[in-house]
Amino acid sequence: MKYSFKNDYSEGAHPKILEAILQTNEVQQNGYGEDEYSMRAKKLIKEHLNAEAEVFFVSGGTQANLTFISAVLKPYQSVISAETGHIFHHETGAIEATGHKIETIATLDGKLTPALIAMHLNKVEPVHMTMPALVYISNSTELGTFYSKDELVALWEFCQQRNLWLFMDGARLASGLAAGDLTLADVAKHTDAFYIGGTKNGALLGEAIVINNVLLHQDFVYNMKMRGALLAKGRLLGLQFLVLFQNGLFFELGHHANKMAAQLSGGIKTLGYDFLTDSKTNQIFPVFPNTVIAKLREQYEFYDWLKINEEKTAVRLVTSWFTKLSVVNEFVDDLKLAGV
Amino acid sequence: MKYSFKNDYSEGAHPKILEAILQTNEVQQNGYGEDEYSMRAKKLIKEHLNAEAEVFFVSGGTQANLTFISAVLKPYQSVISAETGHIFHHETGAIEATGHKIETIATLDGKLTPALIAMHLNKVEPVHMTMPALVYISNSTELGTFYSKDELVALWEFCQQRNLWLFMDGARLASGLAAGDLTLADVAKHTDAFYIGGTKNGALLGEAIVINNVLLHQDFVYNMKMRGALLAKGRLLGLQFLVLFQNGLFFELGHHANKMAAQLSGGIKTLGYDFLTDSKTNQIFPVFPNTVIAKLREQYEFYDWLKINEEKTAVRLVTSWFTKLSVVNEFVDDLKLAGV
Amino acid sequence: MKYSFKNDYSEGAHPKILEAILQTNEVQQNGYGEDEYSMRAKKLIKEHLNAEAEVFFVSGGTQANLTFISAVLKPYQSVISAETGHIFHHETGAIEATGHKIETIATLDGKLTPALIAMHLNKVEPVHMTMPALVYISNSTELGTFYSKDELVALWEFCQQRNLWLFMDGARLASGLAAGDLTLADVAKHTDAFYIGGTKNGALLGEAIVINNVLLHQDFVYNMKMRGALLAKGRLLGLQFLVLFQNGLFFELGHHANKMAAQLSGGIKTLGYDFLTDSKTNQIFPVFPNTVIAKLREQYEFYDWLKINEEKTAVRLVTSWFTKLSVVNEFVDDLKLAGV
Amino acid sequence: MKYSFKNDYSEGAHPKILEAILQTNEVQQNGYGEDEYSMRAKKLIKEHLNAEAEVFFVSGGTQANLTFISAVLKPYQSVISAETGHIFHHETGAIEATGHKIETIATLDGKLTPALIAMHLNKVEPVHMTMPALVYISNSTELGTFYSKDELVALWEFCQQRNLWLFMDGARLASGLAAGDLTLADVAKHTDAFYIGGTKNGALLGEAIVINNVLLHQDFVYNMKMRGALLAKGRLLGLQFLVLFQNGLFFELGHHANKMAAQLSGGIKTLGYDFLTDSKTNQIFPVFPNTVIAKLREQYEFYDWLKINEEKTAVRLVTSWFTKLSVVNEFVDDLKLAGV
């Protein structure tokens, strides 16, 4: 069986999560998120947030995005996203299916800036075009980049001035935070809402939507039920986030994933290969000759990302909370052999 | 802590499911339902189905209903449901949120019949009213009743004649099947689609949508992704159904739930109490004096269902795959004391 | 050719409207409602309204209903309507197609009251059911009844207390107002929004949506464009309402329609026939023997409304701004002959 | 008052249309498109079509686009359009509001080609991206260009091969046809559906949707009613198309608009000015110095289209069925003076 660097959701869950599931299995709990684990997990997460924020658990990222975005936009309003944004590129029209246009901005690195958004807004005509009302960013981005504190603050201030909501897709938030100087409290302070990704950071499933803006969280649970995002056994989501936010496990797993990626990058660089981007998160994009790729494919699974020229391709390698140092080192060794 | 008869999703999962999750935790698998457990589970379920049927796993019942129904209806088409149907009564407008009207029929017992539907169809005018195209039934129903084989066959033949799809909500399918003479193969043969409920029958979460009609399952997975119903770690759903369908565990758990309900009913009858309906499934509706209810509430949790008169109320008691005989007997003992 | 009493939109437009269209035909005007006729018509209508109200012209009633209702509801919110309400009964799921459930209340006469709505609200459970947020009424109703000032004020005060918007479908507003003691200013004062029907009161087409509540009209024109309700040659709508509201033509035509209906009712009563309802608007519902109906059908077109028994049927006769006294008298004469 | 070259819907309707409205005003007709004028108009239009085509009248272009496109796409399917396409650029998210993504292709001239679409299709991934199912083109385009017969046939054959519906937005079809070698019969033969624009070619309002593909027109009228696009007095639309298609008036008016544009272009060229595109339809895009534009603006209204550099701007001048030769000549004279 080949080892996969395809993504960060190839394995199950962190052992501490499984242990908690086992230990609480026979305890009766209320349904639909009214269980004690969910309540305790929310309390724990709120310690990082401002006093009025509310937390809601859902099963996955597309569900988090579509439920939140459709809840806050008026029918004629649209969301602004980088062209590479997950909601535009890889969610099968989930946002449009709720009735809203995504207006896209071309970027070099998957990140939006006040200048880029301002240029876009200049082209918007009233009435005959949708009204942009929400800015969607991902951290880390689909290209492995991340936002620094200064960058997020600048975006936030711009959005405040322009009357735009700011929403951060945190499917890979743990990795994004571990890569730079942003804290969870910073994100809470400088967005209207964001979600904390569990699926890609050690949970069986689950994302925690955090709504900081008190104008936006009222009745949000109705939207969840209506979109099929309110689990009967909500305990399963609450319990996992309870474990993840006890003793900083969530942050630790993000650090681990990045560390393994850095180790991998370092090894690849040592062998003389270039990278498409200079990533500090858990997704890296080395450029290999196609012949090398063919040899690596005998032992590993990973995605091609971009054809550079007839001979070279950038591939995507993803590490995770689970990735072991031994596997990373083995890959570098195999790469060395493949390149001979 | 009070014991809860409120529903059949108060506990976690069957131990065999937890065991399988533990054992496979470190095995890498593809995402989005392309894992080997999902594939094996589908194969196992298909042994009960016709050759062309396809199986799809989603997180919950509302999600199953909205994803399937919105996938098969044209924009101007509607779904017919009993007034008590879960999609009409308790899913926060999830179907309407996908753009479709639910046309309701009043029933005595939560069950639709060819005669009831025929009367409804007589009132439908073309063009200015929606066109009914799908009949939604639940088995067991929200009132604890279930369909016999004859009843389902009659509905199916009627729907075939009238060019209506027939869809069965199987949130409590295990209990519904255990109560009567229907088999899973019968359901597969006499519906266009149905779903097999895991959440209420021993899984942590998960429902298996079965689409028997080859005209309806093409590209269904696009709809799942679009509605946020395609889990990244689909393995979690596949694995659970794999366990549930090995050695008939799924059916066994349904039988157990019904048996516990029958034991509970028997004890209550012996004490001289009446019932709102004569249920053979895992939901029973005894009628108690309000004074008795008040005493029971000191030790148990359950829902009031219907006020009979100033002195009496029908309550709902739900047993499950997990309910223990000792608890049932204790309840009957406590009821005896409460009625003194 | 048979004479039709089927509806109030069988003929074209009032001659004054046609004259205005002819006279202004070659004048260049801005598109999309920015023409001078629309602006003058709005000003004229606003003389009846409070200072902050805004007026918007659209092509038809279903369009008015769906554009307004979908603009003010949040995704999980629903609209309350009588079971006989046009939006529920005869608009092909137009409201549901925008994502919203209609919650219905059975009535005797097509009219909602605070008591009826209060009883309905008692049954609404949070989160798992949609949240009613808007009350939809028609004046005159689909059954020919109308609201008195006291009735509307009572509804309005109830809606204010319960945090519900109140919206009046005025497809037949001219007839509704002419029948009772309500004025246009009363309607403006005691609803959040309503529309003034042109199509059924002498226009070629067109309804004027009036939004009294300043919270609701912001950006409404975006919704119009998005729903395909913003006409390029908006002048056609504006000009017609300009004519209708000059010298009270709109009100005069409503009076005429009712007067013709009263004349018709009077004649029918004189001949000894009963009525299904005691209508004072332009729709009347006499009960005739089927033999009489068969004879009338040789010369007239009209709809059967309700089968009373094997021998008798209530029919609907509709008069309009155009109906001539001579035609009414002829019908009564023919009815006399048919009954011999 | 300034003369406007802003668009082709600044005036009312062709005198023959007004005359027909006047003459038929008192004739009773059935509602909702069941009137005799609509039936006769459909018959007349069908003489240009294949035997199975069906014709449906609606009020405007956005309504035509959204009603048709939402009727034929499955929920997860998308429409392909040029980036300049009206549905993407200027309809306030009307298509997205019905739940569908628009996938855009950058073009030089607003026209799609098989090669451009093929390149786009190569980038589409299954399941995680929407499935393109319909190609939307405009003729003439938003940039004044048009499709030749060869170009349309090539597109049609490509769409047939790739299992894509082909839909033509004909808001300016009369001008598009008059510019090249395409006939209405060609359009009918080489698209699945298109619409014939009345609003911009002499009608008060109205577009005729033609559905050539028998798979697509069944029950279409339900979609019209549901979207608020079925006029009660459908006679108004039918009658206008009846007049437009008697004695070729529709085609004649398109020719006139183009002829006036050609005359205008000729005059402008004579004065030495360049054009942004070489348009043969009724929209032309001359490039003028900003100083000239400022002088012209004292007497004329028109839209700026594209800033060429600090000194020059391309403007858009639109002629119509109504434009008089004298006005064109005057403009050229005034341009001459302005350029001195």
Helix content percent band of chain A:
40-55%
CATH level 3 topology of the largest domain in chain A = Aspartate Aminotransferase, domain 2
Q: What spatial form of chain A do the alpha-carbon principal axes imply?
A: globular
**Uncertain residue segments of chain A:** none
Biggest contact:
A-B, 53 and 53 residues
Oligomer: homotetramer
What is the count of structural domains of chain A? 2
Instruction: Determine the N-to-C terminus distance of chain A.
Output: 24 Å
The helix/strand series of chain A, from N terminus to C terminus, equals EHHEHEHHEHEHEHHEEHHHEEHEEEH
What structural category arises from helix and sheet content of chain A? alpha/beta
Provide the spatial order of strands within the biggest beta sheet of chain A.
2-8-7-6-5-3-4
The CATH superfamily of the largest domain in chain A is Type I PLP-dependent aspartate aminotransferase-like (Major domain)
Cofactor (chains A, B, C, D): pyridoxal 5'-phosphate
Domain Aromatic amino acid beta-eliminating lyase/threonine aldolase (chains A, B, C, D): 17-285
Keywords (chains A, B, C, D): Aminotransferase, Pyridoxal phosphate, Transferase
Pfam families (chains A, B, C, D): Beta_elim_lyase
Notes on the structure:
- Chains A, B, C, D: One of its GO terms (molecular function) is transaminase activity.
- Chains A, B, C, D: Keywords: Aminotransferase, Pyridoxal phosphate, Transferase.
- Chains A, B, C, D: InterPro entries: ArAA_b-elim_lyase/Thr_aldolase, PyrdxlP-dep_Trfase, PyrdxlP-dep_Trfase_major, PyrdxlP-dep_Trfase_small.
- The structure is a homotetramer of 340-residue chains.
- Chain A is globular, with a radius of gyration of 20 Å.
- Chain A is 41% helix and 17% strand.
- In chain A, strands 2-8-7-6-5-3-4 form a seven-stranded mixed beta sheet, sandwiched between helices.
- Chain A has 340 residues and is of the alpha/beta class.
- Chain A is built from 14 helices and 13 strands.
- The mean pLDDT of chain A is 97.
- The first copy, chain A, folds into two domains: 96 residues, Aspartate Aminotransferase, domain 1 (Alpha-Beta Complex), CATH 3.90.1150.10; 230 residues, Aspartate Aminotransferase, domain 2 (3-Layer(aba) Sandwich), CATH 3.40.640.
- Chains in contact: A-B, A-C, A-D, B-C, B-D, C-D.
- At the A-B interface, strand 1, helix 1, helix 3 and helix 10 of A face strand 1, helix 1, helix 3 and helix 10 of B.
